[in-house]
Amino acid sequence: MQNEANDTGSPKPAISILIVSFNTRDVLRECLDSVAVATGNLVVETIVVDNHSRDGSAAMVREEFPWVRVIESTENLGFGRANNLAFAAAHGRYIVLLNSDAFLQRDTLCLSLEKMEADPTVGLASGRLVGRDGELQPSARMFPNPMRQLLVISGLADKYPGSRFFGQADRTWADPMEAAEVDWVPGAYSIIPADILHRYGFFDPRFFLYYEEVDLCLRIQSAGYKIMYWPEICVVHVGGESSRQIKTLEMSQTGAQLVLWRMRSTLLYYRKHKGSTAVAVRWLEEIWYLLRAWRNRLRSGEDARCEVRNQKRLADLMSLAWKETKGGRVSPPQPW
């Protein structure tokens, strides 16, 4: 089992694994089981931040995984701020970010550590994310810009995944079994030298959810370090499966809330890194949704009417996100 980092005389952990959980008790149990297997002979500490869950997650961890340090928040801090809380308590030379719905393979940690120590120019790295069925999930991405944004929301990126132009945002054209230097990787699993985070900062707390890992990767890359994708490192991620949507369904309240959060973070990111480009992104999305609504008005049937309502709602949500963030200049009061 793992070595406790806080015990007197215990060695400094090679890796601190940070896991944020919000009402994910059952998959969190599976996640921690995978951590126990992957630890091997490494000196590792594991920290779980419970984001004010209501499902007994924290009690489960304390009872079943006594080697895990639990930090209970009195409010939902979101992904970035909760990880920042864990980072402040971490002692490892490397920080591993792990979603509570992601599961390590037996060699994940050892291989990650080996590859990081072999190349000090790497500032952050990740591996190949797959669903339970083995289907590849987007694991190595390029920084967003208005063109890539349009390719994604228009569906052209999904329609032509093998094209270097249309598939550029998620690099769907690339061989997933080839290592590559990329712009950013998803936060479901990543490994980062702790000293880089101490020097350049962890997550920007303004991002409650979405874009926090994009912002972090951009800052690390701007400091002269590489962001790497290593396919030999494989992690099973349930989240990619559960997020699939049936397009003909009416947008749910929960779905609309997540879309609004994504739009807020989009505007915050563009304003922070690209200034007035945030204006273009706002209008790009709004106009696209309104055009989609207009096109569906020309069709008959309930599916078309439902799509009109959905597209108009999306346009309204972007307008609301613009107002709430004052054009991407401020983060609305948290928790969102």
TrEMBL record:
The record places domain Glycosyltransferase 2-like at 16-140
Against Gene3D superfamilies, the record matches this protein to:
Spore Coat Polysaccharide Biosynthesis Protein SpsA, Chain A
Pfam families listed in its UniProt record:
Glycos_transf_2
- Tell me the InterPro entries matching this sequence: Glyco_trans_2-like (IPR001173), Nucleotide-diphossugar_trans (IPR029044)
Give the signal peptide range.
none
Question: By what name is this protein known?
Answer: Glycosyltransferase 2-like domain-containing protein
